[in-house]
Amino acid sequence: MIQLKKIVLLFALGLSITLNAQNTYKKWPDIIRKNDASWFGTDEAKKIAENVLLYQRDIGGWPKNIQMQQELTPQQKKDLLALKSDLHEITTDNGATSQEMLFMSKMYAQVKDERYKESFLKGLNYLFEAQYKNGGWPQFYPLKKGYYTHITYNDDSMVNILNIMKQVGEQTDYYSIKPSAEIVEKAKKSFDKGVDCILKTQYKQNGVLTAWCAQHDEITFAPANARAFELASLSGYESTKIVLLLMSIEKPSAEIVTAVKSAKAWFEKTKITNLEEKRVLNDAGKVIDKKMIVTQNAEPIWARFMDLDTNEPFFCDRDGIKRKSLDEIGSERRNGYSWYTEAPTEVLKKYDAWAVKNGTKVSALEKKNISLITVAQDGTGDFTKIQDAVYACPAFPYDKVTIYVKNGIYNEKVRIPEWNTNVVLQGESKEKTIITFDDNFSKISLGRNSTFYTYTLLVEGDDFLASNLTIKNASGDRGQGIALSVVANRAKIANCILLGNQDTLYLSGKDAKQYFKDCYIEGTTDFIFGGATALFENCEIHSIKSSYITAASTPQNTAFGFVFKDCKLTAEPAATDVYLGRPWRFYAKTVYINCDMGKQIKPEGWENWSKPEAEKNAFYAEYNCKGEGFQPTKRVKWSKQLTKKEAEKYTIENILKDSKPNWYSSSTTVK
Predict the structure, then answer these.
(1) Rounded Cα gap, residues 390 and 415, in angstroms
(2) Catalytic member of 43, 477, 526, 566
């Protein structure tokens, strides 16, 4: 009777004072996940935190289905204090404990109240204590009689715990509380044990690995029953998060790779594409009926329960009898439970990229004549990351391979290796297709050559084409930080925006020829630098502050270095003293032809970088330019104004001459 009273008390606390909910979000999980970081420093959040602390038991865990944000009466607070040492109804089911730990982490990030840190660490210790020696977790701990002792994947319970262990073990910034080295090591071991348990519980059907069940016996690992309508079965829903967790592991073992491949094959085998769920709602928006409608080419769905031997979907009422269709069970269970799921779609969308990254073949990309790969953050393409698309490109292809990138901000560091030649990287629009990363010299901290590792996009593969993109180094004015690094031959960049500060654009490569057309290039010091031969045609070159536009390192005996034709040199208002260039190496070559130079360009035009020898060997010249910044009579004496005859040599054919004729005329647009 005493235990029954405690359960009734918790139920009452969870439901009480609904009208007094303080936050816009009415559900406790929404409050944790949907509020921005700053909200967790408010008085409202602090008040809720006091409730969360009250609900936490001395052992470290929390009960489930409690609306922690609801205001408590003095008597309710007193009752909760009396329950502190009670060991009943503490669980990880329905997100309990893991979501409260996340809340405490977010609170501690804003308010350094040591009670929040202590609460998080107590929760972590509770999870350590609850783990079975075989790596699994029960639904309730201390153990509750019945099916609650089974290893529980139901409602992602065990996956939620393992994600905590993963973040703590890898010392990421996901949680604001940083445990001791001892606890970090403990989390790593706990995670590894959990993964081992996952591998051991993957169900074999006639000797073939498939997926997982919602519950597995804690001793034998065999599929296990739960409630009367939750018979042992393969689960389309619970298996999804398990596979995604395995796919998140860097450098997975051969066993993990096999587990993922097998589960993916099972998802493909069991997907349903001829049914759609139709829901009937009442005036209040509540589901009063569900029907499955036969539909051709429907979006794939999976059954929540599938037969262990045949994979056939089945449905149960509270009598525990299997039925073959949803309309055979009563309305209470039919409408009050999720019998179908779209969740495995996420695995199928991410699988190809994971498979390429981990050295397995990808069926959709095994064709030798692959010519188009689409990247889209919403999952509608072949990949969601640009780098994964690059991994999928064949080495040294005979024909162009286009990576078409849909609009979005791609926060990633992208490298196109030298064996990935003939790549076309085309954005949907230059303003809305953005590749960005924030590395800089200090952040990389690899010694004096750190600059060259700071790129956002690195192109090493020859015959590269890019268009309709923004490529950005987002580190700000914090020293050297490359947006685009091109160390390839026959590279063409058209209609792109290149953004950075110092060292925005690095151009190099042995005998490399590179072509920039209709681009916007922005930066501060030496923001176009390197030793390649590069033609800039009809580009806007924008200086953010007073400094140097170019720093060429043209090799000796090279005919052309950097050539700007029909370009416009602009600047921020604060940039009033801008040099056209200075020599990074003695034989630097930079020429401006038919360019419009703003008033920010200094009258002397060029600077020797304290290298008198460069004045004898560097070649700095201009021809037929205009604008307030073009003052040929005031230029340094060691620079040159070309004659018409000399300028006539600066044709695209001469500057970009290569063994492949007219390579620069290649289209950068997908037809």
Answers:
(1) 8
(2) 526
Task: Please write the tens of the pLDDT for every residue from 305-357.
Answer: 999 999 999 999 999 999 998 889 888 888 878 889 999 999 999 998 888 88
Respond yes or no: is residue 439 known to be catalytic: no
CB neighbour class for 644 (10 Å; exposed up to 12, middle 13-18, buried from 19)? exposed
DSSP 533-601: EEEEES-EEEESSSSEEEEE-PPTT-S--EEEES-EEEE-TT---BEEE--SSTT-EEEEES-EE-TTB
Alpha carbon separation from 289 to 214, 277, 317, 328, 442 (Å, rounded) = 25, 10, 15, 13, 61
Find the distance separating the first CA and the last CA of the chain, reported in whole Å: 76
Length of the chain measured in residues: 671
CATH number of 367-665: 2.160.20.10
CATH pick for 2-145+159-186 out of 3.40.50.620, 1.10.630.10, 3.10.129.10, 1.50.10.20 = 1.50.10.20
From CA 453, how far away is CA 481, in angstroms rounded? Answer: 9
- Where residue 519 falls (left for φ over 0; alpha for ψ -120 to 50; beta otherwise) is beta
Q: What is the pTM of this model?
A: 0.55
pLDDT band at 150 (very low <50, low <70, confident <90, very high): very high
